[in-house]
Amino acid sequence: MKKIKWILLVLLFINTVGNAQLQWINVDSLYQPLPGSIHVYKTTTLLDGKPNIAYYVAADLNSKQLEFTTAVGNGKRYTPSQFFEQDGQRPLLVMNTTFFEFVHNSNLNVVIKDGQLLAYQQHTLAGRGKDTLTYRHPFGSAIGISKKRKADIAWLYTDTAARYAYASQQPIPFFKDSVADPSASFMLQKGAFKKWKMQTAVGGGPVLIQNAEIKITNNEEIKFAGKAIDDKHPRSAMGYTAAGQLIFLVVEGRFPGKAEGATLKQLAQMLKDIGCTEALNLDGGGSSCLLINGKQTIQPSDKEGQRAVPAVFIVRKL
After folding, report:
1. Nearest-angstrom CA–CA distance, 178 and 56
2. Any idea where the domains of the chain sit in the sequence?
3. What pTM value is reported for the model?
4. pLDDT digits (tens, 9 = 90+) for 249-288
């Protein structure tokens, strides 16, 4: 009987340690000079008993010292370090953002800079197998910042003929039909979408946090098939807190015994514990990269180093 109790106590201890909150340490001193409105944190706390390395940056949305913007490659891809060098102002922060395709170096998610749409959401996915003549139309998610420096995460419809993105504040299930390019009027006819007048925005998905609770909209956004949300990979994510802090989070991964990455569920839990009221996943894997004053945080998983990407999020000091 005593042996059974001892085993139960050990299992309880392991479960408690595995699910404990991560311990974050301020590492501002490694990335100076930094204004007081931006801070960098690192953790090496085990993630469910596995080696883990992650960083997050908290930037004050209301600080007049900070400018939040984006940059795109205009048909080309650059590494985050190349975006940093090309910027001219040597920004405080550069992070990868959108999913993309390699043939034309095109963003598959929205990018907004100075209120202008520079890239658009992918709204049509061709069916497979028995559904090769059927198309699925998802509404991907994005994070935006308004002129009044208010952050928002929403599900979008974009059109090259429209000046603004249109947003729903609730996840919209994808629909199927045989039309490869459905019209905006059809998609918006239910009135669920409103103009999303953001000054700066980047897309990704799925959404991880809604109303300060974990709610992953992978099925609505058709991001990762089957049980792929439980796979461990390097991760990039953004969110914001009720106190007006914009959060940038990266998780190192694909280094067995050193940093094994995170599942989307683990990523969501990190963001919730940090205090995000809304948060979304961005392109991860070999694309994950976060630079502070041009210096890397996590080690990119590609053996070549930083992966070239078509868009980044940028924070500058004014």
Report:
1. 43
2. 22-317
3. 0.92
4. 999 999 999 999 999 999 999 999 999 999 999 999 999 9
